[in-house]
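User: My instructor asked us to take a sequence, write out its structure as tokens, and then describe one feature of it. I'm not sure where to start. Here is the sequence I was given:
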Amino acid sequence: MRINLKKCFFTEKEFVLAENDGMRAVAFRYSTGVEALRIENSSGYFIILPFQGQQVWRAEFCGKQLTMKSMFDEPVPNTEYLKTYGGFILHCGICAFGVPQEGDTHELHGELPNAEYRDAYIECGDEYIAVGGHIDYNKTFDRNYTFSPECRLYKDDSVLKLNIGLENRRNEPMEYMYLCHINFRPFDGAELMYSADYLPENFKVFKLISDKTPKEQAEKLLKYMEEIEQNPAIHHKIGAEGEIYDPEICMAVKYKGDKNGRAYTLQLTNDGACYVSHPVDVLPEAIRWISRRGEDDAMGMVLPATAEHLGYTNAKKNGQIKILGAKEKLEFVLEVGYIGKTETASVMQRIENIING
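Assistant: Let's start with the prediction itself. The structure tokens for your sequence are:
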């Protein structure tokens, strides 16, 4: 069953919009005016903004708040990226994404993160509830595309299935870029494990430091970046003595996939792991973004992408712009969430098999 959503369904008072085999979809509106759905099962919940970017604003599973810490307790009705930043999963692109560099005209992370969705839905299926929608982007003499994300949660599961669709509606090829900005919370004492060889040549640390960073702090940050370049494993232990992520560190990691083209990333905790699986063929670039500065605490352990995070001009220069043929459609799946000990052990073995070939 599918219900087409309307903004008038949402009020400041929560109400159950749908129930399905022990799961619930609760509709409400934040005090800021942004509409939201909380999808609940026995393992936890996620909150999605159906009309604002289809952002997954919050996620809590297995008793753990997975979302980064930020200054924003509630989403703000705004299209400017940093004026409502703090969600768990944000879609970035499609015309471009990343931090604009010289020669770029696009906004930070493109048009998708806070795009207004006029068409959104909730679907109750066989032991799952999904929220999705689509936007049609049409600019004369430029491009015409439809972007269709869907976030699905199964009964008793703690991992979100992100089904992503992109359609080029023009009769000529279309350039595109896409990044899935996944913002976990760091857990001190946890450890990173992922399907890549932990060799310096597989890591590219972007030594870009804001001019606003005090000189002494900038020097310490640069030194830590250089240490990671020489020995990437030093950043695997979260909260380790000597770590510096103020204001942030970004790096690109060369991932390897299994026989199905899937790559895996874990933030290992004492009872399981934060988990991401992404397709390396569709999203060949993997950005790692970590920021730990008091009011912001984020472990972007993998942001699967088509290109590096430095905007269109940089991606074009590096041959990282993707092409979707005339009238062509692209579909792919990401998995994001938290897994328990048994499944964690299985994924760890999968990672070891990939690394050892």
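For the description part of your assignment, you could build on this observation: The two ends are 44 Å apart (CA to CA). Try explaining in your own words what that tells you about the chain.
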